[in-house]
Specification:
The complex is a heterodimer of chains A (829) and B (234). Chain A has 26 helices and 24 strands. With 829 residues, chain A is of the alpha+beta class. In chain A, the strands form 4 sheets. Chain A has a 6-stranded mixed β-barrel with strand order 2-3-8-5-7-6. In chain A, α16 crosses α20. The two termini of chain A are 33 Å apart. In chain B, 35% of the residues lie in helices and 26% in strands. Chain B has a 6-stranded mixed beta sheet with strand order 7-8-9-4-10-11, with helices on both faces. In chain B, strands 1, 2, 3, 5 and 6 form a 5-stranded antiparallel beta sheet that branches. The longest helix of chain B is centred in the C-terminal third of the chain and has 16 residues. Classes of the chains: A alpha+beta (829), B alpha/beta (234). Chains A and B meet through α1, α10 and α13 of A and α2 and α3 of B.
Amino acid sequence: MLRNYLTIALRSLRRRPGYAGLNLVGLGVGMACCLLIGLYVQNELSYDRFHPEHERIVRLAQQSDDGGLAWIGDAALPILQNEIPQVETVVRLDRRTEQVAYEDGGTVKRFEEQRFFAADSTFFEVFGGFRLQSGDPQTALRRPGTVVLTPETARRYFGEEDPIGKTLRLEDQGQQEGATPLTVTGVLEPVPANSHVQFDLVSNYRTFIAGSIGSYWVPRAWTYALLKPGADRKAAQELVRDVIAAERRPEVAARFTPVLQPITDIHLHSNLGGEPAGQGSILQVTIFAAIALFILLIAAVNFINLATARATERSTEVGVRKAVGAQKTQLIRQFLGESVLLSVGGVLIALALTQAALPVFAAILDMEFAVGIWTNGVLWGIVAAVVLVTGGGAGSYPAFVLSRFQPATALKDTLRGGGRRGGWLRKGLVVFQFAISVALIVATVVGYSQLEYLRTARLGFDKDQIVLLSPEGNVGTLKQELASLPAVEHVTLTSTPPGLSAGNSYRYEVSGRRPDDSEERLNIHWVDFEFFETLGVETVSGRTPQADRRSDIGIAKPAGGNHYSAYYRDRAFVVNRAMLDKFDWSSQEAIGKELRLYILENETIYGDFAGEVIGVVENYHAASLREEIPPIVYTPTQVPTPDGDLAGYYATRSLLVRVASGNADQVMESLGRTWREVLPDEPFEATFLDDRLQAQYQNEARLSQIVGIFSGLAIFVACLGLFGLATYTARQRTKEIGIRKAVGASVASIVGLLSKDFLKLVAVAIVVGLPAAYFAVQRWLTDFAFRIDLGPMPFVLAAAASFAVAGLTVSYHAVRAARLNPSRTLRSE
Amino acid sequence: MIKTENLKKVYRTDEVETLALNGASIDIASGEFVSVMGPSGCGKSTLLNVLGLLDTPSDGAYLFHGTDVSDRSERQRASLRKGNIGFVFQSFNLIDELTVYENVELPLLYLNTPSGERRERVEAALDRVQMTHRRGHFPQQLSGGQQQRVAVARAVVADPKLILADEPTGNLDSTNGRQVMNLLAELNEAGTTIVMVTHSPADAEYSARTIHLFDGKVVSENFIEQEYAAHPGA
């Protein structure tokens, strides 16, 4: 009997390749989308779970109203170690950029290592998931000057040689005499892709900082603790809060609340300042998961709809089977088995598609998947559930409804003519599918528009043809040399490259008065003299600092060995228009205002700058368009020594070079040549500012690309379903069409008749889908301080597109049916 | 074998109530060949469906082999049908996805007949209707007459005591029609009870008795033998 069912199922599919194709492709594509996104979601949720003790690992971070900090200074270390009984072991991680060299018989291999970690010797105790291929985790990082490498890094320096015991050289800002030897004590297993920290080398923390500073601000480090088994994280956190609060000034303690974040929450749920690169977003995971679910629903609905529509054609078979003695249960088994078989076919297609598309998908997301397909229990669980739900859902109408009919009724074929059974359900499901599709189209259009807006918005400065360099060494000479190049129009320095960050925030006083909220801060940027000219930022009133006005850089006092202990007076300040708005000044009033900006930490004042406002400049987007333009105070990057000499550049990290338009490669080449002459030991790295600005929106670009692709697929799958349904409707109404034509209906009127019903459903779907989409995209847009106006366009576009696509889909069959010769259509009766 | 008393069948739709059978009482003995005739819509097919347990009467009694089966559940009726009653339909009702052989085999599958015996019986049934050479064909590949012969084979393969035929020649030309009627006559001679709905007086002549229905009631019964007796030479 089973063979008979199988035979029937397979032959019936072969006899209706269209039906089988629609079903298999629809379910296959829908499910492949779902599996791909499912893998992504699973991967995101799997972060840091590879550490055997992941449930006990926490990171000590600081929460505050304006975002908080992922790191903390070294004063936290003894507290965790000695005063919190729940803590077993503590480790600090500091991500550094270091220049590392290996000298082997005269040849030097030198790399700028951007993922160089400094860690306490307890690294492997806390992070049990990071394993050594060779070397002893107990001792590998015990002493300063030890380093462990990932296999790839080891290969970079040593090729196929055994790196253990070899010595690398840590070069101090290009000065060879300052080089520190690093002995390789271990080679790591590759770092799992689903680790929130990614590194190439790990050295002992004391290689860089020997003693303890005892500050909560410096040196910055991500600080992790391994809690004792069974320890209560919440209780430990309370204790940490109390102990640290007792040591800090009350207003600082009130602003920064220490938190012990479970390591497994960091990747998706933590969005603090100074997070490691590659943080995930729970919002993105949620959006993707919702899309996956929607597409799967659309595909499942198709499958069920088509099976139900087709089932009405099988009433004769039901009648015959019953007449020759089939029991209802036997028919139920047959129909359910058939549809489960078909859905297994869909799953096989889905798995093949998923396997093929995974590398592309990973490339778009720019991520490496730590989870796979074939050995993934969760995935197979989902697959089994989908087979049962779609197979069961699709089979249950014929199984439970058709099998219930009296055989005489089934044989009479009235089901086919009527065909309206399950009609409401089918219509409801079509509405549901198209509502989702319409909403996804809106999301795609809005996503792309916002992205386009972010990419092309006027930022308030001329961002083109600016090359961004970040030299560590002799900035002054490099600047001079670069300025003499023919391709270079301007060179300027800044602490804060425009468009990328709002900069440092300092406490302040205006005319000797602190703000009412003593914790309030202003952003300060140290900029070179030609900064505003280079960027084309207009002056609103007053003037900008001039190189030939020595008084603009003020004076320093008292004498001190480093910048942090000096303070600067009579400095020239420039403010932006947002400052005028904040303090309700006119552009003229602002000139001459006295300002002071400083850092207060542990009762000590650092970086103290005071002087007068000499000019006001126009606002420009200092940070990404997600953020409002903050009030900014600009001051010259050059600072004097207490005896009046120029001490050099304060807090300057970036060189902006405006180059003549032309061959970018040639320009870069000439910049590189000059760089290597001035800074021979520092690797040359340069990017166009515009590229860096665009890169800020990578997440949005990725999101809208993925939403775009999957909306397209969702609509495709929904249309497959509609196409299938149109096929059956046209067939069911063959007789009606024949009669109408016999009495004089035109082809056009028949096409209208057949299309109308479907388009009505699409219209209902639009009414349902648009408001839902409106709320969703509105919510998404609030993440951006600067955003597109949500006009009617995306909604009109989505509605029109759905109508057009649905109309085309349905009209194919409508036209075909309408053009049939009535004698043929009537003959079958 | 079959006895009905005051059989009624009402079809209801939202607005209309149709009385398909209005107190039909018939009595058919084992081994009889009975035709049911009457104008369109008089209830012939409904009667046949009720007799074949494909449908339940709204009222009245139906005794099958002396047992009242009028209120049996679908499950019980299915069990009664299988192996006991064979059907031949005007529109053949072969399953398109199954070959000739598999269509004929179907009733035996539901009877859980062992495969060896199944093969023998299917071959025998096909042989009986001279369709052995077409056993691997699908219904669409056959002429109407051939399809109906396959349907007859399917009806007899389980060796039922009763065959119900609903206008078995309605879709056939006269040659094919005659062939099918001859088959039914042979079956009857071999002892199978046959009840056949027909419009064709020629087909009715194959039966020994004709029941006339009108508006859901039996209006007359005439035995061919009696008519011969009354009008010798007619």
